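Let us practice reading a record.
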Amino acid sequence: MRRITTLLTATALLLTVGVPTVLAKGGDGTRIALKSAKAFPAAKGSAKFKATAEERELQVEVEHVRRLAGKRVVFIVGGKQIATKKVNRFGAAEINRNSQRGQFVPAVGAGTSVRVKTAAGALIVKGSF
């Protein structure tokens, strides 16, 4: 009985030490789906945020907006415009921001909103972390 208790205690200790180490590496980050607005019902999007002690990385993409091909869309995170990008001929636009490359990456936490709008201000997709 004492041997089992010792073994369970050692296993619990290893898990306690091991799990935070994995989480500190950033893992795969947090990914969310962005929901389409009524004006663009076919639109789909996603956002991914990953943070480690050394870097922060943010990726946001929107697709299935072929009618906006060649036009600019605005990426807004946490209420601040962080980029504009031209929609390609396939109806997609994406941004990738990485602090290690000297790029601005906004602070992202639970409840941080992500929106993609047309240059005129029409909402395409939205979501929150």
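A brief commentary: The chain has one domain: 26-128.
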